[in-house]
TrEMBL record:
GO terms for molecular function: demethylase activity; oxidoreductase activity. Pfam families: 2OG-FeII_Oxy_2. PANTHER family: 2-OXOGLUTARATE AND FE-DEPENDENT OXYGENASE FAMILY PROTEIN, OXYGENASE-RELATED. One of its GO terms (biological process) is demethylation. Gene3D superfamilies: Alpha-ketoglutarate-dependent dioxygenase AlkB-like. This is 2OG-Fe(II) oxygenase. PROSITE patterns: FE2OG_OXY. The lineage of its organism: Bacteria, Pseudomonadati, Pseudomonadota, Alphaproteobacteria, Sphingomonadales. Residues 244-335 form the Fe2OG dioxygenase domain.
């Protein structure tokens, strides 16, 4: 997985920004699949970030939960971790010791710099912090060893708001983000066209496209190697195999551009979105007897979301017109 990313993608990016992917490779935290040495070490590694909450550190790699930081509603936690267990982890971590105690525990080759995680309306897996634990976590090694956490504490009720929506922050780091921005800007972007209607956002499809006039999937250029490499990196972060994500859509939203309410075409299956360049809000709604039920999820730059299950099939989504340029990479399976 990583080899493809650091090799092919580096080569592919070279003409646009020499060294960009090399930088990225160097910056990838704990990217090597090193065998876990002991439990403590698996919890900490170079470049990992912790979350400081109320004077306590939430240890990196843990499913991190931000409880309604902005008064927003939570979303389903990333990875296949039952919500109540994820919450227990937070409680455990908060009780687990002071920041000073945590710092002293983190000394050594795997100690890492800390940065607070931005507030986001839901449950977060802080992927940028992720080391890969091939033994236990496998591809989903970003999810720390939940099994190791105490099970007895359960202070919160668990009600996932939009089933099937998963969020991962820092799915790529800023250096890779810049390289991807250049790749997107260099792609054959065209204004989104829907019959007579021309959208403000600029799009380019790879792998397969969609003919809105005929209402069916259409040919598109094959996935470039840099998108293949990116796909290898992103899909495990939401617990998916890369191979099924055969469709890629690049979008640039310049100021004034957004995307209206829609569900992705039924020809597509699951959807993964990487959000770049500027914060945005993913709005979700589904029809009820009396109108619409609505949710909002903040998408910080470099965050990744998965639309699966109900989030994909029962909810519509949209992004309000942007004030500053945002870019996204959407990967989709075909049904
Ligand atoms: O830009 C995004 O993150 C969303 C794109 C989207 O919803 C779509 O193209 O169907
Ligand atoms: Fe969409």
């Amino acid at each position: 997985m990583f080899r493809l990313f650091s090799g092919q993608m580096q080569n592919d990016l070279a003409p646009v920004r020499p060294g960009a992917m090399f930088d990225q490779k160097q910056a990838l935290p704990c990217a090597e699949r090193q065998p876990a040495i002991d439990h403590r070490n698996r919890m900490t590694c170079a470049g990992q970030r912790g979350l400081e909450m109320g004077g306590h550190i939430v240890r990196p790699l843990v499913i991190v939960i931000v409880m309604h930081p902005l008064g927003r509603e939570p979303v389903e936690p990333a990875q296949d971790v039952p919500l109540d267990r994820a919450r227990r982890v937070l409680v455990y971590q908060q009780r687990g010791g002071s920041m000073a105690a945590e710092r002293s525990q983190q000394a050594g080759p795997h100690a890492g710099a800390r940065q607070p995680v931005r507030g986001i309306g839901g449950y977060i897996v802080h992927a940028g912090a992720g080391g890969l634990d091939s033994k236990r976590g496998g591809e989903m090694g970003h999810c720390l060893h939940i099994e190791a956490m105490p099970q007895q504490i359960d202070l919160f009720a668990s009600t996932p708001v939009v089933s099937g929506l998963r969020m991962v922050t820092d799915a790529v780091d800023p250096a890779l983000e810049r390289a991807l921005e250049q790749r997107i800007d260099a792609a054959p972007l065209q204004p989104f066209q829907f019959g007579q209607w021309r959208g403000k956002r600029l799009t380019a499809n790879f792998g397969s496209g969609y003919d809105y006039r005929r209402g069916r999937v259409a040919d598109a250029p094959p996935l470039p190697t840099w998108i293949e490499a990116l796909r290898e990196r992103l899909t495990p972060l939401v617990g998916r195999d890369s191979g099924a994500f055969v469709q890629a859509l690049l979008i640039r939203y310049d100021p004034g551009a957004g995307i209206g309410w829609h569900r992705d075409r039924p020809q597509y299956g699951e959807v993964i979105g990487l959000s770049l360049s500027a914060p945005a809000v993913l709005r979700l709604r589904r029809r009820t007897k009396n109108g619409f039920e609505r949710r909002k999820v903040e998408l910080p730059p470099r965050s990744l979301y998965l639309l699966s299950g109900e989030a994909r099939t029962a909810w519509e989504h949209s992004i309000a017109p942007m004030a500053v340029t945002r870019r996204s990479v959407t990967l989709r399976t075909l049904r």
